[in-house]
Amino acid sequence: QVQLVESGGGLVQDGGSLRLSCAASGSIFSINVMGWYRQAPGKQRELVAVITSGGSTNYADSVRGRFTISKNNAKNVVYLQMNSLKPEDTAVYYCNAFAENYRIGYWGQGTQVTVSS
Questions:
Q1: CA 45 to chain centre
Q2: CB under 8 Å to 94, separation ≥6 — which residues?
Q3: Which of 9, 11, 56, 107 could link 111 by a cystine bridge, Cβ 3.0 to 4.6 Å?
Q4: What distance in Å separates the CA atoms of residue 54 and residue 114, rounded to the nearest whole number?
């Protein structure tokens, strides 16, 4: 079992920045990849960024160059630094982890990010 707890969401103005954190606990050794997804009202959940256990990263086209995913292995925390935020970035952001050779997925409870214009 893996537990994920997000923090760092909030309200920010257009062009502002926020940093989200996701603290993982439990069977950390079994995690293959962690990532951030988001879901806006009336829309499907979408991938934002992922980072593998080896440190490789990938981003959605809509956030590449503005968002950065990183991790602190010593603290078992994954971060999402979000710069140049836009109103269309408004969504609930969820932390995700795939473990056991990508067979099991875990989700955090979500954190709201609101960007005002």
A1: 12
A2: 6, 36, 37, 38, 39, 45, 107, 108, 109, 110
A3: 9
A4: 31
